[in-house]
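Hey, I'm writing a tutorial for new members on how sequence and structure tokens pair up, and I'd like a real worked example in the thread rather than a made-up one. If someone can provide the structure for the chain below, I'll link this post from the tutorial.
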Amino acid sequence: MALAPSVDGEIISADSRHVYRRMEIGTNKPTSAERAAVPHHLLDLREPHEPFSLAEYVALARTAIHDVLARGRTPMLVGGTGQYIRALVEGWQVPTVPPDPQLRERLFAIAQIDGPDVLFSQLTARDPAAAATIDQRNIRRVIRALEVMHATGRTWTELQRRAPLDVHFDWIYVNQPREQLYATADARIDAMLAQGWLAEVEALLTDLAGVGIDAALQMPALSALGYRELALVARGRMTKSDAIEAIRRETRRFIRMQDTWFRKLAHE
């Protein structure tokens, strides 16, 4: 936000949760005042229950970048979803395979009964190269890779053709010392709760009342940090204090994972 005016910049979101409407507080989405001060792109594209794929993101982001450049301004790709950024700048040609709800349900059931390691072992056996790039704790990505391979009969790696982004770009990795970042994250969690984060989650669950809490918790939107825990609080399955502790713990884990991802990306 501070840099954008000096470079005639427009911000293109690279945050996989900013695409969902009505998830303002818990995703720390840019405010209306911030959007008025600096143009933002790729926010509020879907309802929380609607699917949104990596292929859609790459196509929309490419269009947004070229539109900004065509107006003589500077596109600024901003966000912490490393897969979005990597797929975009490296030009992954992501297959546009529609979701298969029945297959996903079967695979999620396997993960719940036998453990997620069973699915990751399947992925490793079928496509070791893909397994090396996918976090085995990210069950949704593992299932998506298996789903695409099931639909196409080809490996995930074979389908990742490259058409690199045809513009020059500079990487700027904004970070803080780890303990300072942990403290900043803890303070932000407290601030978001004070702003009404729990009420935001309760409103989402009300809108999804016909789906049921267990099905709602499987939706990608509610896998955003903190939303699952607060949904359990809203339905009386977890205390608020336990939820806050879990959110802090998961946020710190995510910080470590994100730092590893971006440092690795910067050195490739």
